[in-house]
Write a structure and sequence with these properties.
By secondary structure, this protein is an all-beta fold. It contains no helices and 50 strands. Strand 4 and strand 5 form a beta hairpin. The strands form 7 sheets. Strands 16, 17, 18, 19, 20, 21, 22, 23, 24, 25, 26, 27 and 28 form a 13-stranded mixed sheet that branches. Strands 3-4-5-8-7 form a 5-stranded mixed barrel. Strands 29-30-31-35-34 form a 5-stranded mixed β-barrel. 31% of the residues are buried. Among the domains are: 72 residues, OB fold (Dihydrolipoamide Acetyltransferase, E2P) (Beta Barrel); 71 residues, OB fold (Dihydrolipoamide Acetyltransferase, E2P) (Beta Barrel); 69 residues, OB fold (Dihydrolipoamide Acetyltransferase, E2P) (Beta Barrel); 92 residues, Sandwich (Immunoglobulin-like), CATH 2.60.40.
Length: 574
């Protein structure tokens, strides 16, 4: 379900458009998101899968923009819905662009001081960013301001894209608080209550100025967030002690560790506190300076800005695996690798050097080597500018790639070494991560034939497809049942099937024995049915909802227990 709404200014939204995003209806349908590698006269290829089009294929641009087959080009990020034909061909029924004008090839983000300013540009170090009428300029509180309000010496975050003339056009400029007020957090969402998002025990307030990005770094809304999902949050601690999220970006892959950037507020011989999380340290904890050189833990100081990577041990405690002092690493670039040299990589027209201290991470945030990088990968590079103006990478993380794709479909044959989808067979190896619908890691042996799954995959030069991560979307019981699976979160799942006629299954999980209500409302908020209104035991519950007496349209179902509330939408089509 896609909802377009206007902010009333009072924390509520008025829906101006509600549209059903068709789900998968049968085992022959599939959705694939990936980069175009070839374009033919009536077809295109994404990661070894050829999609044919005909007169009935629907084309959708982002944000209501027009889009057509003629606009499909190599390197464009697309979401394709297709149906497997009897002859084995994949016929595209819907093609949707996931990239605004192929901007992934020239995105640049920098946080730095304004060194100079002209009538229509600002200069940060060696970069000049032009502005136009569409450039969004925000103050520290993310309220709109004018270009004239910016001054030399201001610390700003700039997001820009390279133009055809190789200049950079700023799409967003935001005045930044000084580093001591900032916090960056990568962890799982524990709860979503209204506009508040709780991550690892910290509740972040969001509002209409908060920027929400999907895993492709494209704008979305808070409705795209789901409990259990991994996200990267950037925000700051307000004077009243609350936390505000200025940006929340969805992470594609689950992780074993949390990552937190903030100031050291407490420091002892065996622990430190950052962002309200107490990290224990021992002889195995790695401590680095701002250039990734090893230093002693005793050299850390109270108030220093650090980035801590660790494993959770409790609600507000963790074991520190790595502590790194943050210095002048004020340049971040996201883009496609165009060349790899002996001691450097090239992207966005820039040459970025590496050294023995450069850290390399894969899509799942696991340590890799320089040799694992390749041309056409999309990477996020954190770097500094040396005295001689050369750029040195401190960290290079693979975010995506021309050979990466995400496939949503029903599984065919499944065994411990492969999973079959309409787009082909995907190898399962010891590096493949398998998760359930709540983003909990499970065993590959729990996957079964005929269930809906999402597969994140990579294809090699020989067109062999390997599953990097598999998420089970199975949810098809027919009555209230309980699962013995351990549950640690309050979660309301999307009903299945959706759209439906006349019955659908609603699944939810509660982390303790508690009183629960589950109700269904129509589009104007009138209560249509009470499905549950009683005490339930901890675990996963499934209930069948029969809408025989209701008319076609979209409905809202609401799960409530104590101060926890989650709401989802469903579509009845008769």
């Amino acid at each position: 379900m896609e909802v377009q709404a206007d902010n009333n200014g009072s924390g509520t939204f008025l829906a101006s458009r509600v549209k059903s995003e068709d789900g998968l209806n049968n085992e022959n349908e599939v959705e694939l998101t990936g980069y175009v590698t070839e374009v033919g006269t009536v077809s295109f290829v994404i990661n070894g899968s050829t999609f044919y089009v005909d007169a009935n294929t629907e084309y959708r641009g982002r944000n209501g923009n027009t889009f057509s087959f003629e606009q499909i080009s190599v390197g464009l990020l697309l979401e394709v819905k297709a149906e497997l034909q009897t002859n084995g061909d994949l016929l595209a029924t819907r093609v949707k662009t996931e990239d605004d004008h192929n901007q992934h090839n020239g995105e640049l983000e920098i946080t730095a001081l304004i060194d100079n300013k002209t009538a229509n540009s600002i200069v940060l170090g060696q970069y000049e960013f032009f502005v136009d009428a569409q450039t969004v300029i925000l103050n520290h509180d993310r309220m709109p301001i004018y270009f004239s309000d910016l001054n030399i010496g201001d610390r700003v975050e700039v997001k820009a894209y390279k133009q055809l003339d190789n200049s950079y056009l700023a799409v967003r400029i935001k005045l930044e608080d000084m580093p001591e007020n900032e916090i960056e957090f990568t962890a799982q969402i524990e709860s979503i209550l209204g506009s508040d998002v709780t991550i690892n025990g910290i509740t972040f307030v969001t509002d209409s100025n908060t920027v929400f990005l999907d895993d492709n770094r494209m704008p979305v809304t808070i409705s795209s967030l789901v409990v259990g999902m991994w996200v990267e949050v950037k925000g700051f601690k307000k004077q009243d002690g609350s936390y505000y999220a200025s940006r929340i970006q969805i992470e594609d892959f689950v992780r074993n560790e949390i990552e937190l950037k903030g100031n050291i507020t407490e420091l002892t011989e065996v622990s430190l506190v950052v962002g309200g999380i107490t990290f224990s340290v021992d002889s195995t904890t790695q401590v680095l300076d701002h250039l990734n050189n090893p230093i002693s833990y005793s050299s850390l100081l109270l108030g220093q800005l650090v980035e801590v990577k660790g494993t959770k041990t409790g609600t507000s405690t963790a074991k520190a695996l790595r502590i790194k002092i943050e210095g002048n690493e004020d340049i971040e670039i996201f883009g496609r690798v165009t060349a790899i040299n002996i001691n450097s990589i090239e992207l966005n027209g820039l040459v970025v050097f590496v050294n023995e201290n450069t850290v390399y991470l894969n899509h799942a945030n696991q340590t890799i080597g320089f040799s694992d990088l390749s041309v056409d990968q999309f990477v996020e590079v954190k770097m500094i500018s040396n005295i001689d103006s050369t750029l040195l990478a401190l960290r290079i993380k693979i975010e995506d790639g021309m050979n990466f794709s995400k496939v949503n479909g029903f599984s065919g044959i499944v065994n411990g070494s492969a999973i079959q989808l309409p787009t082909g067979n995907y190898v399962i190896n010891n590096q493949t991560i398998v998760i359930d619908n709540n983003y909990n890691v499970i065993n590959a042996s729990q996957l079964i034939s005929g269930q809906q799954v999402i597969v994140w995959a990579a294809v090699d030069a020989s067109s062999n497809k390997t599953a990097l991560q598999i998420q089970s979307k199975l949810s098809s019981p027919t009555s209230i049942e309980e699962s013995p699976v351990t549950v640690d979160m309050f979660v309301l799942e999307q009903n299945y099937p959706n759209p439906f006629n006349p019955s659908t299954t609603i699944s939810f999980s509660i982390q303790t024995d508690q009183f629960v209500t589950l109700k269904v409302f129509n589009a104007i908020g009138e209560e249509m049915a009470t499905l549950i209104n009683k005490n339930l035991t901890r675990g996963t519950h499934n209930i069948n909802f029969n809408a025989d007496g209701l008319s076609s349209g979209f409905y809202i179902y609401r799960l409530e227990s104590g101060n926890q509330v989650q709401v989802r939408k469903m579509m009845l089509l008769k």
